[in-house]
Amino acid sequence: MKISNRLNIVLALVAVFLLILGTNRIDQRHFETAQNAVKSLHNDRVVAQDYIYKLNNLIHKKQLFPQDSGTSNQNINKEIETLITLFLETKLTTNEAKVFDDFKNDFFDLKAKEARYYSNSLSQVNSDALQQTNTGHPFEDNLAELQTDLDNLALIQVSESKTITGNAQKSLDVSNLMSSMELYFLLAIGIIILLVTFYRIDKVSKKSIA
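That's the Chemotaxis methyl-accepting receptor HlyB-like 4HB MCP domain-containing protein sequence above. Prediction below.
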């Protein structure tokens, strides 16, 4: 076999090797993107949605028991503060951080109003009156604001989950496309090598016969 033929085969093999190496690197990058998206979906969205669900329950307890000004209400506030700390450990988008800041400010505003209201010398009278007349919650508007903040946060979780899922699917689609292109290119290279090899063999055979 001539040196030029050997060189052509070596160059073809090097091209195939570089193609495989390059596509593998691209596939790995897209796989990591999809993997990070799955982790983010769980760590930053599913977990956050669980915190929102628990916060909703705690706010609902406040709405159901306006007459409870004792230890129970304080415990609820402590649980809310714990969930606020945990929620801040998740990855927040710009819009999400803004809405959550609104929730925090509304909550601490409510907490301060509760402290002033229940520390009043007539607090017990106020609680008894609420329980007997059932005229409503003294902080109904504040609790409604908190509920709105949590509803907005829940909507953000749904929106961000769709975005993350979409990005992960795009990465997987690109990875599948690159794999298909790699396969077709390898087939094309293989066919070209076979055609060139058989052409040369046929050409040599014809010369020998002649």
